[in-house]
């Protein structure tokens, strides 16, 4: 070890450490299981805004007692509180890191009546939008929302007025949406009402907040994104 370098133990003191998992039954939540097992070390920090939640799952978490006390206890608000997501976000706010051991050390059972299903999607959405606006959007003077459909428009409407003013365009591959030319935010109090251009993704400029779900298009979306030769975290972030 290089003189003066932190020891492995000390370098983990401010980190959550998790691992890969095996799902039971094996074919339950296949897309989610691929996601949590295949994220790169960099993506453990860049894909923290997605609907999938923490980038290492809570049943696998280890951290030091001192760090747990520093971040704060889990929110014990009861059913309907995403306590793992709230703790994970507070961990990141305080500068914590994330490590995944690339071995399957947990058999992760799926049950349709598990407590996690009691958390409303709208509750998780609100926390994700807040965290995006707090941690990512201040770095960008302007950005494009990738998806002119329902999810992209919902994100736009969920943003604060200040963040909405940073949205310079929507982009998509759907020619019908692109031909429409713009999205008009009818609920805006501004006059005239904002009209946000809708562009083909190749005509749009990064950075992008991407509201397209991964692993659902047979690789077509992922191929389009790779063709732009962008850097995740700097030029785009995944939100869906």
From TrEMBL:
Species: Piliocolobus tephrosceles
GO MF term (any one): glycosyltransferase activity
Protein name, per record: UDP-GlcNAc:betaGal beta-1,3-N-acetylglucosaminyltransferase like 1
